[in-house]
């Protein structure tokens, strides 16, 4: 089809969509008027169904996802067209970066996603907790590796998760498969009889082509942001009074629809690290340094072999959460939230005297975030969802990505919902627009949907459901066609239960 033809189809489709939209709205949202205009609607639909399929596809590209689903119920022709891959790819492109923030990972490369795959991902994001079913499926991971523990965090795509071995080795596994095998991703530098503490960090912001955030490639296209062809992983270990930091490049390998991962070591160096939490962004890694009693930021590309570790030490010694931000800023959570602009600080050899203090501190304390929490990016701002303790409110943390805005003016808060939360931090999970709190002893869960200031999202909602009692870390399966709660059960071998 020529460009002129495409332009003509698109223009006609847009006009047809505008003419048809009021009838869709009447049919879908005003049940009491349906009997009045049902015949007129039927005539409009009949005329519409006689249009060429390519025109119908263009029409559906110009309406909302919910209206596409409404048209699907009208006749076989519209049902078939509503499943066209181009329809849902167009909707995803339209919503992405305007309503849906980055990252919005797919479980496989975009070119391998069918129309059903894209529809499921878009609809699941918009529909909140609708369709959550009170059914439970439980899977056990590789029984031959019963000493493994985790997950530590999800890999981009939310299909595979990282687990650790006793000796500090890192494995990846798809816990949604029965008897899912563990695959070695990162070997340990320690002997097999060592008991090694580990924390890891995926450079999520570095996969999204964000201004001021260094990336692996200058070409981070729409497709690459949805399924990164490569990303970096920081692994911090501690055993017998020795610590090590490794930076790895991870690449997904797709063969016949199956996905695996390969790793390549970029840098390894030693430091007295306590692996409680860490962060990685571009050329810099941040972690808790026990020798300096501080949060240390190191340019890992500049660490000389066998040389001293030079870095910037932030005067915060017990961080719960660290996030390196674009433009050489860093957020540290240690009961309170702290923000630091460290780009003008000089690197010095590890010493407790070479510390700088945060330039901004919150006035209220915040709950320790979920271990799998990631930042979101939209409207030139980094966003996090945390629980404010004094206000007892779910709070959106908005950090401006404008380099010209001073640190003290760059952070704002938005109350998303008032709610009570359980004691354990791994019993509550909050995504960009929905979350849940599990009250284990009561065997109940609270399901929340919320919206950010200025967003055109559905109105906030709250519901309560019965929930299984066990000891687990909760998560939500974003790779599934409908909302499904994941429970990583604290047993060996590792078990995973899916509720929904």
UniProtKB/TrEMBL annotation:
<dbReference type="InterPro" id="IPR036047">
    <property type="entry name" value="F-box-like_dom_sf"/>
</dbReference>
<protein>
    <recommendedName>
        <fullName>F-box domain-containing protein</fullName>
    </recommendedName>
</protein>
<feature type="domain" description="F-box">
    <location>
        <begin position="45"/>
        <end position="91"/>
    </location>
</feature>
<dbReference type="Pfam" id="PF12937">
    <property type="entry name" value="F-box-like"/>
</dbReference>
<dbReference type="InterPro" id="IPR001810">
    <property type="entry name" value="F-box_dom"/>
</dbReference>
């Amino acid at each position: 089809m020529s460009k002129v033809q495409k332009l003509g189809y698109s223009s006609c489709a847009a006009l047809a969509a505008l003419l048809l939209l009021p009838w869709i709205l009447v049919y879908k949202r005003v049940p009491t008027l349906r009997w009045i205009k049902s015949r007129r609607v039927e005539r409009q639909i009949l005329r519409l169904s006689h249009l060429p399929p390519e025109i119908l596809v263009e029409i559906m590209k110009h309406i909302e996802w919910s209206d596409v689903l409404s048209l699907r119920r009208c006749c076989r022709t519209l049902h078939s067209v509503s499943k066209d891959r181009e329809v849902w790819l167009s909707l995803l492109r339209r919503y992405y970066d305007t309503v849906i923030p980055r990252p919005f990972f797919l479980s496989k490369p975009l070119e391998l996603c069918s129309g059903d795959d894209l529809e499921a991902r878009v609809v699941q994001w918009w529909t909140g907790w609708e369709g959550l079913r009170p059914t439970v499926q439980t899977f056990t991971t590789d029984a031959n590796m019963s000493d493994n523990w985790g997950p530590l965090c999800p890999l981009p795509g939310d299909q595979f998760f990282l687990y650790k071995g006793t000796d500090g080795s890192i494995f990846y596994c798809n816990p949604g498969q029965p008897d899912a095998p563990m695959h070695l991703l990162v070997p340990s530098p320690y002997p097999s009889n060592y008991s090694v503490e580990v924390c890891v960090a995926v450079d999520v912001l570095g996969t999204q082509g964000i201004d001021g955030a260094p990336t692996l490639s200058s070409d981070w296209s729409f497709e690459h942001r949805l399924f990164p062809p490569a990303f970096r992983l920081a692994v911090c270990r501690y055993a017998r009074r020795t610590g090590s930091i490794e930076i790895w490049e991870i690449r997904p390998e797709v063969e016949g629809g199956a996905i695996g991962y390969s790793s390549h070591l970029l840098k390894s160096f030693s430091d007295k690290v306590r692996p409680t939490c860490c962060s990685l962004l571009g050329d810099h890694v941040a972690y808790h340094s026990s020798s300096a009693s501080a949060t240390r930021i190191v340019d890992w590309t500049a660490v000389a072999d066998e040389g001293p570790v030079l870095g910037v030490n932030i005067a915060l010694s017990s961080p719960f959460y660290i996030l390196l931000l674009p433009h050489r800023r860093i957020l540290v959570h240690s009961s309170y939230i702290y923000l630091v602009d460290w780009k003008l600080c000089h690197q010095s050899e590890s010493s407790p005297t070479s510390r700088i203090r945060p330039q901004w501190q919150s006035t209220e304390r915040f709950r320790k975030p979920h271990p799998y929490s990631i930042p979101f990016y939209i409207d030139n701002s980094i966003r996090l969802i945390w629980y404010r303790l004094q206000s007892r409110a779910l709070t959106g943390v908005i950090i401006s990505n404008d380099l010209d805005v001073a640190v003290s003016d760059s952070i704002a808060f938005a109350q998303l919902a008032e709610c009570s939360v359980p004691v354990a931090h791994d019993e509550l999970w909050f995504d960009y627009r929905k979350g849940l709190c599990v009250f284990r002893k009561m065997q109940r869960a609270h399901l929340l949907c919320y919206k950010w200031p200025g967003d055109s999202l559905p109105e906030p909602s709250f519901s309560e459901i019965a929930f299984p009692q066990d000891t687990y870390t909760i998560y939500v399966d974003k790779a599934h066609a409908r909302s499904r709660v994941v429970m990583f059960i604290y047993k060996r071998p590792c078990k995973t239960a899916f509720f929904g």
